[in-house]
Amino acid sequence: MKTTITLSIVILNLVLCNLWITASAFPAMDTKIPTDPKAMKKRYESWLKRHGRHYRNKEEWEVRFDIYQSNVQFIEFHNSRNHSYKLTDNKFADLTNEEFKNTHLGFLPRLRAQTNFTYHKHGELPKSVDWRKKSVVTHVKDQGRCGSCWAFSAVAAVEGIHKIKTGKLVSLSEQQLIDCDTKRGNKGCEGGDMYIAFNYIKKHGGLATAKEYPLTGTNGNCNKAKAKNNAVTISGYKNVPARNEKMLKAAVAHQPVSVATDAAGYAFQFYSKGVFSGSCGKDLNHAMTIVGYGEENGEKYWIVKNSWANDWGESGYVRMKRDTKHKEGTCGIAMDPTYPVKH
What we know:
It is found in: Endoplasmic reticulum lumen. The chain has 10 helices and 9 strands.
């Protein structure tokens, strides 16, 4: 009973914080934003059914409903403005932003040695690139409530260069990195960095397939027997010159690239479609993989593969504004790019 009361107080504090933050985000909210209690309850019940959400008791139902309402108000207010992207009440809509940040990010930046960039002399680059259309990208995966985005980002980049070099697209094991790459600074579901993952893959002699070493989405003991079955190898990794979107474009024109971003804001949590241009900071906390770039109606963008399953964003992807006036790029996307090398 005491535990239940304590948990309720914690969740209530999160709700109040969430309500305060969302309210401060739109102090002059339009009257057009739907606030009818019956309509909101009906929308919530439909959302619960759509996402198969079940709660332990009526109290938690009410708490989550309050969170959902405040999030929907933020979403509807944003969508009423003339932004280049839209938000939606996706599967994260019953989470406070604090809960979301604690469970779905996971990039931990580390100091790394500088490397020679291999694409300085790139010649004329194509106007657009989409590695998905060249069968270089596997399906969108799901890190779940495990801060292992770094593993998914690294694996997607390795899958890409392996396909480019060999002609074979192989889905590789993020779980092996989560369980086994733990001695040089990576911490499984508590976060990590892609370059450490690349180093592990090189020194270990490769990485097993996702079928051989399947995903559990939790920290586990390293299964050394499964980890021995290396399916794909790399020769090392390279850094893209930081704060240089031209060089980042050159790298992406040749292969998928691992990047880190600031994905902790409400807008990224509820992103639905369009070219994401903020709001966000430059505090790198989430890893993804750029798999292309393009332009739409004069708006340049990066095509970025996320690891929150295909029911987030544009079927699991986000298009992020490219060539901004800030050298760091949108949400810091140009601050810390890296890519695997395969000879």
